[in-house]
Specification:
Blueprint lengths: L1 E2 L4 E8 L7 H11 L6 E8 L5 H10 L4 H9 L1
Parallel strand pairs: 2-3
Antiparallel strand pairs: 1-2
């Protein structure tokens, strides 16, 4: 977690493993970001092997800004 100011923060996770990341990893990070009271949060996932289609599809639905979906697709 990195805090930019009182209102915004970055929550990120990075793992170097051979399997693709599935939706529960993303959901856990989002859940943990809600434990804090920032008005603006940014979620980043960095993984060696990319993301499952289920994870990418879920981001397409949840991510209204589109930035996370683009990052997931570029890394898969």
């Amino acid at each position: 977690m990195g805090e930019q100011d009182k209102n915004s923060a970055l929550f990120a996770e990075c793992k170097w493993q051979n399997e693709k990341v599935d939706l529960p990893v993303l959901e856990t990070l989002i859940h943990r970001s809600h434990l804090f009271h920032y008005t603006e949060t940014h979620i980043y996932l960095f993984f060696k092997s990319g993301f499952t289609k289920g994870c990418i599809d879920a981001v397409a639905v949840k991510d209204t800004m589109g930035w996370l979906r683009e990052a997931l697709i570029r890394s898969s």
